[in-house]
Amino acid sequence: MNDIKSNTGLTSPENAYVDPVAVRDNCRYYLSKHLIKALNHLPTLNNPVMLDMGCGSGVPTTILANHFEGKVFAVDTDIRALTLLRRKIARQKFASAITICRKSVFDMDFTPQTFDLIIAEGLLNVIGFENGLKLADQVLKNQGYLIIHDEEGESEAKQEILARYHYQIIQRFTLDEKVWWNDFYSHLNSRIEAGNAPHKQELFQNDLAEIALYREKPALFRSVYYILRKATPH
Ligand SMILES: C[S@@+](CC[C@H](N)C(=O)[O-])C[C@H]1O[C@@H](n2cnc3c(N)ncnc32)[C@H](O)[C@@H]1O
């Protein structure tokens, strides 16, 4: 695993400060260890074909490319996030390992049963748990692995959905509000506070609102990793 700085698209503290996408990306790497913990529950995968659904600026994508010697397809609609991912790919050894697909996950046209491993971090809480699971299921191989990082809550309903789609829960663990502060929001907050660019409030409006919400209702930010195996063909 490369270190946090070498994995990002940041070139200097000045650039880091004026591009909110790059700032978030940089801070997002502090959460890497939790995906690595999830990946460590999987067996060795030989040259896997992998999919990162809702990849954003590709923090999980680059972790996958570092962790396994295989191919990663990274799907998202966000042009600014994907531009940053493209920059990161160009600066790293990932060029042949990562393919960026700028499209909605609802428009994916991969052949059924293409992937050995799929990850979806922070996507299913946007598009719906069952919607996301159904999309992943269409392109995941039988006996393939799926890692979902989702907001906490509706645990029983989610387990019922997973059972209905024949997914075995290999492991599940929670990131509590303290983890979110220590491994993400404290860094984001310090980075914004340290900068002195004009229009700071405007530039980081969304991030500052998120930090304010965290301070008000930290429990809302708890999240869960599900490490899953597609148990039976259907
Ligand atoms: C919370 S971010 C997580 C990004 C990345 N997975 C990570 O963990 O750093 C959610 C991402 O889902 C993407 N997204 C939301 N709806 C999508 C859709 N229908 N198709 C593709 N991407 C989508 C957003 O653009 C955003 O980048």
Can you give me a brief rundown of this structure?
The protein has 234 residues and is α/β, with parallel strands linked by helices. The protein has one domain: Rossmann fold (3-Layer(aba) Sandwich), CATH 3.40.50.150. The chain is built from 12 helices and 7 strands.
Core attributes:
alpha/beta; binds S-adenosylmethionine; 7-stranded mixed sheet; globular; Rossmann fold; 7 strands; 234 residues; 22% strand
Describe the protein in words:
Helix 3 packs antiparallel against helix 10 and helix 4 (32-39) crosses helix 5. Helix content is 46%, strand content 22%. Mean pLDDT is 91; it is low at 1-14. Strand 1, helix 5 (59-67) and strand 2 (71-76) form a beta-alpha-beta unit. It has a seven-stranded mixed sheet, sandwiched between helices. It is globular and about 55 Å long. It contains twelve helices and seven strands. The termini are far apart. By secondary structure, the protein is α/β, with parallel strands linked by helices. The protein has a single domain (4-230), classed as Rossmann fold (3-Layer(aba) Sandwich). It has helices spanning 4-7, 13-18, 20-28, 32-39, 59-67, 79-91, 124-127, 129-139, 155-164, 177-194, 200-203, 205-216, and strands at 49-53, 71-76, 98-102, 115-121, 140-151, 167-175, 223-230. Residues 28, 54-56, 59-60, 75-78, 81, 104-106, 121-123, 126-127 line the site of S-adenosylmethionine (SAM).
